[in-house]
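Action item from last meeting closed. Structure (550 res):
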């Protein structure tokens, strides 16, 4: 998010008036932390800062198990590690809870793309998930095509067999004078505190445009498949510069999805070099070795769940949830998106389990898969346990879910909370943030934020929140890219985040009353994800757990 700057003094005055108004209906005593709360937060800080294991967990998830594409063998291995680690820390009933249907498993085991002539060099490129491989090295000529309309197909009829097809124009790259990484400034945070103007819903014409683009892409792939091309080579997204390659969309993992040729995305500079050479009528010979394993339908779609039982007989049936998505894309090891969030949530559970603090309510962790394909894992969990947003038929567990806290905006330090339109929690969270002002957490904004799993809870009227995080180089360099490695994650930010999450979970679990809720939204009907990309996750599949609770 980027917002315009306003004078810091004016922003702070507006914020003070807004929070004073929001807190008017909440008794002052209910907003203040007790001595017991402060003592518990001290214990949480001692455990989190003095005995942190968050970077060790992150290294296992990323360095050892690698990318965690939903339903891939890597993801199952990483999930078994997470399950066993949580159990070893004292988390109860840690298990893999199945959901689905999802689609096929897919994993790349070998990939090289080389130029052989007019000069030999290695090309920075990656295969798109759920596309087939080459079944060994394939050497062929490159040809650039323009297939913007169905009418363009005719001119390439019979000319592409066995060729590497470059799709699209040479990317235009402009110098970028902005820093790769940044932390929020005081002015930016102050501006974020202001309420945004009303926002219209998702425009129907954009849905229609997306559907049309998706349908045309499928026609392109069908034509190229019929022509017998060796592979399709795409330029990266508009951000794929400086050797950083960003994933461009995804191919459907469904078993009934139309077949495609092998598809590869190149760094823009690599694509441009080939395109410019071809434009000089100089042949370019490439060699691609792409080994992909496409597995069975719906074998490993699951969430990782575990809990610390509450100790108060009157409140233990109520649940505070923390979570993050566990899956990633496959261009790198998914460190900032979202190994960082998963490691923080696991570390928060360890801190709560080993710091000796008392939890009146149960605290539960959920690590979701399928987030990158449309929040599928968390949506399925909410549908199975709490309610269906399409019909707003609510289940008994809905009444016992206090709140859900999410981390999925990279590896930057937590600076505050998006209130997701819930004015009633503002004075509560304001008091909870006070012990963390020296860690840089001071900002509340009524704004919502999208694209991650708290939305699954918010969709059925449950309090779901995403923390505000420093952007660092998440959008410029690591998000869905080949640069998303362990080295991009600052250890101090991770320790701070785990302590803050553990403290917020503790405070919610020990508050006398549950957090206030917004009104239950009306039935939403099928989501955009359901209508455009994926089948609706099943709420009633009675399959045995992928692994039973321990």
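Sequence:
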């Amino acid at each position: 998010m980027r917002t315009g700057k306003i004078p810091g003094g004016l922003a702070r005055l507006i914020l003070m008036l807004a929070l004073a108004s929001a807190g008017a209906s909440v008794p002052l005593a209910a907003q203040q932390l007790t001595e017991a709360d402060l003592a518990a937060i001290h214990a949480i800080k001692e455990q989190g800062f003095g005995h942190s294991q968050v970077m060790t967990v992150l290294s296992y998830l990323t360095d050892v198990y690698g990318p965690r594409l939903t339903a891939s063998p890597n993801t199952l291995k990483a999930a078994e590690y997470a399950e066993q680690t949580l159990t070893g820390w004292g988390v109860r009933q840690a298990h893999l809870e199945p959901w689905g249907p999802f689609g096929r498993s897919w994993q790349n085991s070998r990939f090289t793309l080389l130029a052989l002539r007019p000069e030999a060099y290695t090309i920075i490129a990656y295969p798109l998930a759920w596309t087939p491989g080459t079944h060994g090295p394939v050497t062929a000529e490159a040809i650039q095509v323009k297939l913007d309309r169905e009418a363009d197909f005719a001119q390439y009829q019979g000319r592409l067999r066995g060729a590497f097809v470059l799709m699209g124009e040479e990317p235009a790259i402009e110098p970028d004078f902005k820093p790769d990484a940044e932390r929020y400034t005081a002015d930016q945070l102050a501006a974020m505190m202001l309420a945004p103007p009303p926002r219209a819903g998702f425009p129907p014409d954009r849905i229609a445009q997306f559907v049309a683009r998706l349908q045309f892409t499928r026609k392109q792939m069908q034509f190229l498949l019929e022509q017998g091309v060796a592979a399709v080579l795409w330029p990266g997204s508009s951000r794929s510069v400086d050797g950083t390659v960003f994933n461009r969309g995804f191919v459907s993992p469904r078993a009934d999805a139309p077949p495609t040729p092998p598809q590869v995305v190149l760094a823009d500079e690599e694509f441009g070099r080939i395109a410019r050479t071809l434009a000089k009528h100089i042949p370019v010979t490439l060699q691609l070795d792409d080994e992909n394993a496409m597995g069975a339908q719906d074998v490993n779609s699951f969430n990782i769940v575990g809990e610390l039982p509450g100790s108060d007989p009157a409140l233990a049936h109520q649940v505070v949830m923390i979570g993050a998505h566990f899956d990633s894309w496959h261009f790198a090891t998914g460190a900032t998106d979202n190994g960082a969030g998963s490691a923080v949530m696991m570390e928060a559970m360890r801190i709560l389990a080993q710091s000796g603090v008392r939890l009146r309510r149960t605290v539960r962790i959920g690590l979701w898969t399928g987030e990158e394909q449309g929040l599928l894992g968390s949506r399925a969990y909410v549908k199975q346990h709490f309610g269906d947003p399409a019909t707003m038929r609510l289940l008994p567990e809905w009444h016992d879910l206090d709140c859900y806290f999410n981390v999925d905006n990279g590896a930057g330090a937590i600076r505050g909370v998006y209130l997701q339109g819930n004015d009633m929690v503002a004075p509560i969270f304001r008091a909870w943030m006070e012990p963390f002002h020296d860690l840089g957490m001071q900002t509340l904004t009524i704004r919502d934020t999208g694209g991650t799993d708290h939305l699954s809870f918010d969709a059925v009227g449950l309090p779901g929140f995403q923390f505000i995080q420093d952007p660092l180089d998440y959008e410029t360099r690591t998000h869905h890219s080949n640069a998303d490695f362990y080295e991009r994650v600052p250890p101090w930010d991770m320790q701070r985040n785990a302590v803050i999450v553990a403290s917020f979970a503790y405070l919610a679990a020990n508050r006398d009353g549950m957090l206030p809720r917004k009104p239950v939204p009306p039935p939403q009907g099928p989501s955009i994800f359901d209508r455009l990309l994926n089948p609706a996750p099943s709420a009633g599949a009675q399959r045995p757990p992928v692994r039973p609770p321990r």
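Note appended to the action item: The chain has two domains: 28-102+298-532, 106-296.
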